[in-house]
C-alpha cells in the first residue's frame, strides 16, 4: 500500500476539498478516491468533476494495517 497526495483546482470554492492524503495500491486507484470527512462520503460536487482532473503525487509507503482511503483531507469550510 502506498501513500499519495491528491489535489484538484477545478472546484475551489467554500465547502469543497482541495487536497488529501490517501492510501491506495496504485496512482490510478488514488486518483479515484473522493475525500471524505469524519467517515461521511462527500459528493463529487465537493471535489472535482472527473478523476482525470486529480493531480497525484506519490509521497511514501504505508505501514502495515493501513486501510485504503482518505488519511486526512483539506476542506475549505465556508
Structure, described:
The model has no long low-confidence stretch (mean pLDDT 87). The longest helix has 5 residues, at 27-31. The strands form 2 sheets. The chain has a 4-stranded antiparallel beta sheet with strand order 5-1-2-6. 6% of the residues lie in helices and 44% in strands. The chain is globular and about 35 Å long. With 78 residues, the chain is mainly β. The chain has one domain.
**Ends apart, CA distance between termini:** 34 Å
Q: Could you give the order of the helices and strands?
A: EEHEEEE
What proportion of the residues is helical, as a percent range? under 10%
Largest sheet geometry? 4 strands, antiparallel
By DSSP, the count of extended strands is 6
* Category by helix and strand content: mainly beta
Strand content: 35-45%
Q: Could you give the order of strands across the largest sheet? A: 5-1-2-6
- Globular, elongated, flat, extended or rod-shaped: what is the shape? globular
Low-pLDDT runs: none
Write the layout of secondary structure elements.
Layout: E1 2-7, E2 16-24, H1 27-31, E3 36-37, E4 40-41, E5 55-61, E6 69-76
Antiparallel strand pairs: 1-2, 1-5, 2-6, 3-4
Summed up:
With 78 residues, the protein is mainly beta. The chain is built from one helix and six strands.
Amino acid at each position: 500500500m502506498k501513500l499519495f497526495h491528491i489535489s484538484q483546482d477545478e472546484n475551489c470554492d467554500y465547502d469543497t476539498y482541495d487536497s488529501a492524503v490517501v492510501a491506495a495500491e496504485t496512482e490510478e486507484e488514488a486518483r479515484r478516491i473522493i475525500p471524505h470527512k469524519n467517515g461521511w462520503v462527500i459528493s463529487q460536487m465537493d471535489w472535482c468533476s472527473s478523476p482525470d482532473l486529480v493531480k497525484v503525487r506519490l509521497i511514501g509507503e504505508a505501514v502495515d494495517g493501513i486501510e485504503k482511503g482518505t488519511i486526512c483531507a483539506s476542506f475549505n469550510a465556508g
